[in-house]
Write a sequence for this structure.
């Protein structure tokens, strides 16, 4: 599956953004989806994930209660609603798809990656 992430931009602290991840292919509903981010000089880190079947969600502690991951299998799209953004959320955000069982928290489990979209939060 091929992925394209969009929706990034510049926002003030406290603001909101919604990222979208559009997938090509007819088997999108069979993939678990995840969002990761990478800030300058830091390693890529897990943000949120959602299972393919029951829509079970997973979040990093740093974004829990602020971010919401969702998916629309009919539109082959996953979303990341980000509220109460803070400067430390500034990063390139990547969406990813995983076809196999395993942890959503590790980037190792994902088969396909989008190109990334920049999110910048000003203070």
């Amino acid at each position: 599956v091929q992925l394209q992430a969009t929706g990034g931009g510049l926002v003030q602290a406290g603001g909101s953004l919604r990222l979208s991840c559009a997938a090509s292919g007819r088997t999108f509903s069979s993939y678990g989806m995840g969002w990761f981010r990478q800030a300058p000089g830091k390693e890529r880190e897990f943000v949120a994930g959602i299972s393919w079947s029951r829509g079970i969600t997973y979040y990093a502690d740093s974004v829990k209660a602020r971010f919401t991951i969702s998916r629309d299998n009919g539109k082959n799209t996953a979303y990341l609603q980000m509220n109460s953004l803070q400067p430390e959320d500034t990063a390139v955000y990547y969406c990813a798809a995983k076809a196999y069982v395993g942890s959503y928290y590790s980037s190792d489990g994902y088969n396909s990656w989008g190109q990334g979209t920049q999110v910048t939060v000003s203070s």
Remarks:
- DSSP finds no helices and eleven strands in the chain.
